[in-house]
Amino acid sequence: MSKKGIDIKELASEMLSASKDVLKKEWKQVAPIAEIHIKTIIHNLEQIAELKLNKKITEEQAKLHLAIQKESFKTILLSFEGIGIITAEKAINAALNVIRTSVNKTIGWRLL
Amino acid sequence: MHINKNSFFLFLVFFISCSEIRLIQEYDPVADNKINSLQEKTSRFFIKMERSVTLPENKYEKYIDFYDDLKSDIHVLEVRTKAIDKSAIVQQQLAALLNQVKGMEELHKKGFKTKEEILLIQSAIDDSYTVILKLQYALKNKKN
């Protein structure tokens, strides 16, 4: 759907692509939830465009609305980045535990 | 390069004995509770505004205290979070939330004319709270 210069489909694909770039390794893990949030934001962008076209809000108000949606997108990306880091941390510590157990077992007493 | 077996063993002992590797902040229950109460406060505001967006009692002037409270609560939380090691992500989330509240305040000053405007802001701010709390939940369950 196009709203006077805003190609929503293209925008959706750009947002998803930008999210994939930012999240990289975490993307597979968070993709389904991230896509739902991104779709909501895109729907909201459509609504803002509609309000502006129907002169229910001014350009300045539209810009403020867009800024609020942008911040929402930012918090979404940050959350998924954080969840990815937690996953990585868990994996590293699990691996360290395996080594720790193995070293302790090899020397026969609890060194680590 | 030749590495002595004993040196390698000592290095291994040192490396593994560093208890656990920490890449992100520990869970902060106080912050989590505060975020939940901020979310409740914001929700109550949206319910009132949705009911009668154009009524005189919903004019910005009647909500100055609400905005002051909300902004100062988020700011207090930001300061608290800054004191926690490796908390950059949560700090940035709180800054984004604060920007959203400031944006909403600006729009309120100009006057809301339709319910759709409120729903748009609510959707964005609710989404922010949801993902912020999602991260808090993940931090809480880090040890599991």
Spatial extent as radius of gyration of chain A? 22 Å
Low-confidence segments of chain B: none
- The pLDDT mean of chain A sits at 82
The end-to-end distance of chain B, rounded to whole angstroms, is 40 Å
The most extensive contact between chains is: A-B, 41 and 40 residues
How would a textbook summarize the main sheet of chain A? 2 strands, antiparallel
Distance between the termini of chain A: 61 Å
Structure annotation, total helices of chain B: 5
Order of helices and strands of chain B: HHHHH
How helix-rich are the residues of chain B, as a percent range? over 70%
Q: Evaluate the radius of gyration of chain B.
A: 22 Å
Describe the model.
The complex is a heterodimer of chains A (112) and B (144). Chain A is mainly alpha-helical and 112 residues long. Chain A has one domain. Helices cover 82% and strands 4% of the residues of chain A. Chain A is built from 3 helices and 2 strands. In chain A, helix 1 packs antiparallel against helix 2. Chain A starts with a strand and ends in a 5-residue tail after the last helix. The model of chain A has no long low-confidence stretch (mean pLDDT 82). With 144 residues, chain B is an all-alpha fold. Chain B has one domain (25-140). Chain B has helices at 5-17, 29-51, 64-82, 88-110, 115-140. Chains A and B meet through helix 2 and helix 3 of A and helix 1, helix 4 and helix 5 of B.
Task: Give the helix/strand layout.
The complex is a heterodimer of chains A (112) and B (144).
Chain A: E1 2-3, E2 6-7, H1 8-23, H2 27-53, H3 59-107
Helix pairs in contact in A: 1-2, 2-3
Chain B: H1 5-17, H2 29-51, H3 64-82, H4 88-110, H5 115-140
Helix pairs in contact in B: 2-3, 2-5, 3-4, 4-5
